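The following record pairs a protein chain with its ligand, 2-acetamido-2-deoxy-beta-D-glucopyranose.
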Amino acid sequence: MATLSSTPYIVFPVLLFLLLLSIFFLSLINQNPDLRFHPSSSSTPNHSQTKHQTPEAPSFLGNVSTHGVPSTSTTTVEKMSPLERIEGGLARARAAIREAVRSSNYTSQKKENFIPRGAVYRNPYAFHQSHIEMEKRFKIWAYKEGDQPLLHGGPKNSIYGIEGQFMDEMESGDSHFMAGHPDEAHVFYIPISVTRFAHYIYSPPVDYSGHMLQRLVTDYIYVVSDKYPYWNRSNGADHFLVSCHDWAPEISIVTPDLYKHFIRVLCNANTSERFQPMRDISLPEVNIPKGKLGPPHLDKPPNQRHILAFFAGRESGYMRTRLFRSWKENDDGVQVYEHLPSNRDYAKSMGDSKFCLCPSGWEVASPRVVEAIAAGCVPVIICDYSVLPFSEVLDWSKFALYITSDKIPEIKILKAVPNERYLRMQKRVKQVQRHFVINRPAQPYDMLHMILHSVWLRRLNVRLRS
Ligand SMILES: *[C@@H]1O[C@H](CO)[C@@H](O)[C@H](O)[C@H]1NC(C)=O
Ligand SMILES: *[C@@H]1O[C@H](CO)[C@@H](O)[C@H](O)[C@H]1NC(C)=O
Ligand SMILES: *[C@@H]1O[C@H](CO)[C@@H](O)[C@H](O)[C@H]1NC(C)=O
Ligand SMILES: *[C@@H]1O[C@H](CO)[C@@H](O)[C@H](O)[C@H]1NC(C)=O
Ligand SMILES: *[C@@H]1O[C@H](CO)[C@@H](O)[C@H](O)[C@H]1NC(C)=O
């Protein structure tokens, strides 16, 4: 089959728009050899969601234009194509966000239970309005083609669990973001679980090659691009896949042209391995225990945190080798363990610590970042080339510290962080907690909505022509 890369369409990134919300992550990381002090606060809203109808089974046989998104302006709607309607809505959303930035305020038709404010946000007004617009407008179509177990189902627990939780949220029928018909959709979700795939295909382990995985994803894209007009229309710029598995970035290695605009939502967000922050999205890795939705929240007050810095975990990857060489079990202040003593509790130890060390492992992502935030512990990121989750919105430098690998022997300088500064950062860690909590069904501003918001932003950045 011919490649899809030459299809006619236009996508022009409104880069300025994204920059309005961002200004950018890469510069945050690893360019300053010093510790960078960055870092705050609220409770979860009880948002009684406007219940939307569960998506009806679509018919692809016709009457497509009658399935348009209900619009507030009813007069001109009839004459518009579904895509024009979608682009019109996006244009209004962009205008509302610009206005929110200009006026330092928001517009909403309903009561806002949570108003993002403070230094943790790059631009709180832009983010707030963008989230409001997303709640109001955003529609996603999850392709129905394909069967379990490789499609339409993923792991909901353990370190890749976010992949299955996201998929389940999209496909359970409860999310008001799901479009009733693909013509209403702003973006298209490819419901492939790379983790499931790795589990079924490479277990028991055979010679690993990414070939079969690439075939699966590519074939799926060929099927849906042949059957429906949506992929060709955007060249994939409004299509996305979500995976936390280490291998997920491999999907696009063999046929990079096909995936040139495709949005990959990845835990393994290594900018040195073709992760592109303007297009791709960094997904938080969360170690989800069975029967739970994330790590425990242990909010000890700052003055009861008697450990300066804490880490426990295996020696996987060069960063940890360096960390162990300097600190393994030889200091009371900087507590670094490969095996935590049996009388110590991992989550509680994080709750007892002022700083939690988050060195990269075999891959850039570490569940420790989310665990640290849940424990109200200031994360210390020790990782090259990574893009942290939600960096378009959150200014990590305000609530996390960065240490480059060569400074690992000097971790004790964390002691020199003035107390007021520490307190400020710790407060901000608590402030961002809501964005790192998984709820089912998802709630405004929680982790699943933040992931959707990242996708929404990529879509806002693209304009499609009918
Ligand atoms: C949220 O509000 C609903 C309806 O008012 C109530 O039944 C529910 O208990 C509330 N949930 C929380 C977490 O407050
Ligand atoms: C399209 O709409 C017409 C009129 O409402 C109806 O008679 C017809 O069955 C519909 N076709 C499909 C494929 O739904
Ligand atoms: C901000 O907007 C809200 C809702 O539109 C309004 O109630 C509030 O008075 C505005 N605040 C300012 C400072 O203009
Ligand atoms: C999309 O483009 C490909 C390659 O040019 C083509 O094979 C396919 O039929 C197109 N899909 C549709 C729905 O026209
Ligand atoms: C990121 O990618 C580079 C280049 O392949 C690699 O050297 C580095 O180890 C990766 N980082 C991690 C933490 O895996």
